[in-house]
């Protein structure tokens, strides 16, 4: 029960940060400036890259090696499966990225606002899995300080980047004519998948402990797919902008410092 409670607290925090960011729609009337949006997207990409390496892949390799296995096999195998999982979701789930006119995924008659929210929801699925698995990993190690601190560091890093992400959903929705209350609700709901998937993977990991290295690297692969397929391209929008690049670097450094300093 402890891993589930910890995962619920960790992913609940990241969900709360998304909701707080979405609440900016009650205080600001203007949409996010493109330069600021690029910084936010780049920052999220940097956080997810660092988290994939320090919080997921390295622990996966170390855990597999300590169990007498070959460390890189579950790391590489789980990573590839995570990429394939997100590719399948990306191809099947109807969604629309900010600034795009053509929806992706299976054809749907859903509203534009719903498709915009689903695009961000895709980002949040691997984030929830990563945070949940980190707390499950800490619980499997008896809640030792190093692993538990690393889990909290990951939740903190994901939560920090979720705040501007929430605002980046609700404010543009408001600009498209959606009421403030609905824009806030849609922005918040985009993050609800984090506690859902976070607790779900903990239930799986708790029942089959040898799968932990595979699940950790699976979450890393899913996050890296989001970074390379969506966040970095959107941070540059087809042109060379230093703001997006600097956002990536800042996010990477902050997440790395959080993980190493608290881990």
Count of the separate structural domains? 1
Beta-strand percent range:
under 5%
- Envelope shape: globular
Q: How many DSSP E strands? A: 0
The SS-based structural class is mainly alpha
* Rg measurement, Å: 18 Å
CA-to-CA gap between the ends? 23 Å
Largest sheet: none
Assign a percent range to the helix content: over 70%
| H and E order | HHHHHHHHH
User: Which parts are unreliable, with pLDDT below 50 for 5 consecutive residues or more?
Assistant: none
By DSSP (H or I, 4+ residues per run), the number of helices equals 9
- Average pLDDT reading: 85
Topology of this protein?
Blueprint: H1 2-22, H2 34-66, H3 72-92, H4 112-140, H5 145-175, H6 180-189, H7 193-207, H8 212-236, H9 242-262
Helix pairs in contact: 1-4, 1-5, 1-6, 1-7, 2-3, 2-5, 2-8, 2-9, 3-8, 4-5, 4-7, 4-8, 5-6, 5-9
Overview of the structural elements:
The structure is a single chain. The chain starts with a helix and ends with a helix. The mean pLDDT is 85. The chain has one domain (2-262). It has helices at 2-22, 34-66, 72-92, 112-140, 145-175, 180-189, 193-207, 212-236, 242-262. With 263 residues, it is an all-alpha fold. The protein has nine helices and no strands. Helix 2 (34-66) runs antiparallel to helix 3 (72-92). The longest helix has 33 residues, at 34-66. The protein is 78% helix and 0% strand.
